[in-house]
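User
New here, explain this?
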Amino acid sequence: MSVDPWTLLVSRVIFPSQCLAKGHASRRIRLAMERSQWLSRAALEDRAAATLTTFIDSAVREVPYWGRLFAAHGIAAREIREPADLARLPLLDKPTIRAQIEAMKRPGAKGLQRSNTGGSSGAPLVFWLGRERVAHDVAAKWRATRWWNVDIGDREMVVWGSPIEVGAQDRLRGWRDALMRTRLLPAFEMSAQKLDRFIAEIHGFRPRMLFGYPSALALIARHAERSGVRLDGLGIAVVFVTSERLYPHQRELISRVFAAPVANGYGGRDAGFIAHECPQGGLHLTAEDIVLELLDSEGQPVPDGCAGEVVVTHLRSGDFPFIRYRTGDIATRATEPCACGRGLPLLASVEGRSTDFVVAADGTVMHGLALIYVLRDEPGVEQFRIVQETLALTRVEMVVNAQWDDVAATRVVEGLTARLGQTVEVRLEYHSELASEASGKHRYVMSRVAPG
């Protein structure tokens, strides 16, 4: 297939030049990653071990917090020579970063970029990103984008809600987006009127790729389908989703309405660009930059094929090292290689955050998907959010339509109590619309009950 001349200009000249002006050699890193992805898994592991050695040495010598921590535990930097050795170190959590934020910076680091998470589970986390870290995260995402035969410079519609991106829509950013052929749709408010406008903008812009939260894109797709508006003839090649758990029904709906495959990405501002889906369906880890551990509730590694908490060491975060960082996410490592032939290791699934799991009255822990199924196929339900307040109380916030009645309400309550326990109070609460989180995301399930 011929490549758009403007896309070539942007991807080979304009965007790389912009990166270099910021001190980011992202194109060079991406090209190296496109070669290393075809190495064997063993060769990639050897490279990661070598990078880990240099990274740990630098962190201990140059970053006050890590130097003190290693000394306090009686560990020398030279003892951490491969990923398995990381188990000797304590886990890093958000409260520690908040308390030690200045001591976690490398003195003299230049070009540090302040960043933060959205704080959906409480207070937001503020941290710093160095130039090397940013350059590698950009390169990893860029590589994954190109797996789908699209590139920077192709028309892209972004459905996003992060204040960092939305707040940056000044004149300079507007010029940049015009050059890159990127258009932003803010996901904060998803009313019927806004959805109509979003659909009209997608029609007019005719993007080659979509990017955004799966919940927001699913809302747009469902609204278009119910409104009788066709979105399957626009030439969209792929829909990239990230930042939330992608549910099977969302993937099916988005793919069907936009007539394009859905590519799932996993990562975060704090942990980095962790994994991305290739056209053959493999969710590949960014093995050149990320050491990933999956741990059980006791902090021990789980076998491949079993779910565990994602703990990340980002090998390119030398200016503000993330070493054994607890993400709070739950994932499973794959047991079979991908048909694409890349040596990059695989995740089988990303189940979501630990707060996406609910606890039944008898102590059984289950993924929120067990509750989502109860409401998902109810024709009278437009939107919903399930909030487990306590073991004894679960609230369901709902937007309903004319098909909703007392029979449906009874069916929902009975379906939820069958899973949570007959003694649990299920309280249905009706709203004209459900507000998104501050980030623009929409979470289907939130639990305030700690498992176990």
Notes: Residues 163-168 have pLDDT under 50 and may be disordered.
